[in-house]
Write a structure and sequence with these properties.
Order of helices and strands: EHEHEHEHEHEE
Strand content: 15-25%
Radius of gyration: 18 Å
Largest sheet: 5 strands, parallel
Number of strands: 7
Shape: globular
Number of helices: 5
Distance between the termini: 23 Å
Helix content: 25-40%
């Protein structure tokens, strides 16, 4: 899974990056929101972790940009946990999680794992068997607009890489 970490505090950036790399994530980092949006525009990320206060463009603006431009992108915000009013506002946003400062290792991992839990490789039971020609038959009705797909559809690129073209429950 590919993560973009947008954090201007070097110690926090290094800590989160190290935690995620050790858990098998591919992590790219930038120091400000404008650089983050530029990376998002030119790259393919599964998750963005953005600090709320950032130089140039803040985490809330990045979240709003992502929802408008890459709706399925998972976004976690990092925020100061000492301001209850600010936390209420953040909870009303459509982020996939909030990591509070001061950071706790287990909370960082919990938020990330929760946000990306539906992006993991399909379970063996979810894989449709191919016929002798190498093709799987899926009813076209499963792809009509407004109908929920009952299973995730993945295309296997090689033994360890898949491309998800639909997710169970998507319309």
């Amino acid at each position: 899974m590919k993560v973009l970490l947008i954090q201007n505090e070097t110690e926090i950036q290094e800590m989160i990056s190290e935690i995620l790399v050790n858990k098998g994530f591919e992590v790219e980092t930038v120091n400000d929101g404008d650089a983050g949006i530029s990376k998002l525009t030119g790259g393919s990320f599964d998750l963005v972790i953005a600090d709320v206060p950032l130089p140039k463009t803040g985490g809330i603006q990045i979240l709003n940009w992502a929802r408008a431009n890459i709706p399925k992108l998972k976004v976690i915000l990092i925020a100061d946990g000492t301001d209850p009013q600010k936390l209420r506002v953040l909870n009303d946003l459509r982020s996939n999680g909030i990591i509070l400062k001061p950071l706790k290792l287990d909370e960082v991992l919990k938020q990330v794992q929760s946000a990306v839990s539906d992006l993991s490789e399909p379970a063996k039971d979810d894989i449709i068997s191919a016929d002798a020609s190498g093709f799987a038959r899926v009813p076209i009705d499963d792809f009509l607009v407004g109908k929920k797909v009952p299973y995730s559809i993945h295309i296997r690129i090689d033994a360890t890489k898949f491309i998800r073209i639909s997710h169970s429950g998507d319309e």
